[in-house]
Here is the input.
Amino acid sequence: MFIASTLILFTACNSNNNQKSINAVTDSTNVAQTKTTNIDSVVNTDASKKEANGNQIIQKANTKQSVVLIYNFHVTNRCPSCIAIEKATTKTLDTYFLAEVKQGRIKRQILNVDDKANSAISEKYQAFGSGLFVTKVLNGKETTTDLTGDGFKFARNKEERFIEILKSIITEDLK
Amino acid sequence: MKNILILLLGLLLSYSGFSQTQIVGDTVISNNKSKLKVKVYYFHVKERCHTCYAIEENFRKTLFTYFQTELDNGIIDMYIVNCELPENQVLVKKYDAYGSTFAITPYKDGIDMKTIELSNWAYQKVNKPEVFVAELKSKIIDLISK
Here is the structure.
């Protein structure tokens, strides 16, 4: 009886510790969310800050929930289609994923590939001009969908179609 | 006898009409239904970016370097289409091409086969022209050899 009680007590304490460690992860995640919520500001920060942000995103993605990274790459002199892709991406996020963006589960960056500060990320995605990439990060594993072709095909003259495609990919990646 | 002659003349004219090669800019359309095996399409908008031009350049380079004979003989038809012009809207709807779109349609026994959509591929490979050209060449060879 004594042994059984001790075992139950031990298990309960252990469980409590697990809960605490989960809370600790959640808290640190919240910190990361706060730091990464302001999307456009990331574009103007320096490379080290971006790297720190990236690490926080990966750290968050090591929890059981996936994080979705959206990258709109562009050059300095942009064409109407490239601008349309960015606008349609914004519209998609504002319309369907505002909560996930605020929670930090979706992180979007608009990056000029001509800016040297963005060379590492541009190289990683092989983005030398306009590009749209959606990356799911889960348990440190990244899975990227390249939507550049669909963007150029639909964003300007068939925006609703592009939004449907992007929405579908993001919804799938958030699962 | 006169009626037969008119009928023959009509058939001759209609046949030459089908096989006459249309060249508008660098768009090459032979409409040679008996020989045609592949239709290659590049759709673009009016206001184009560097990447869009680069895709067209790689596309032309592939066809003119490796498939000039097939273009001349009507085995390959090459379409470069402004998708924003009213006269192209039938093709635009058929190919779902509301912006820069790259597609290949195999053609067999007078019928369009299932279209291969290559827009995403084109944007992925456009900055590596040698890879773009080699892979497109391989895809087309595969289709015309069937």
User: Anything to note?
Assistant: Residues 2-36 of chain A form the longest helix (35 residues). The longest strand of chain A covers residues 67-74.
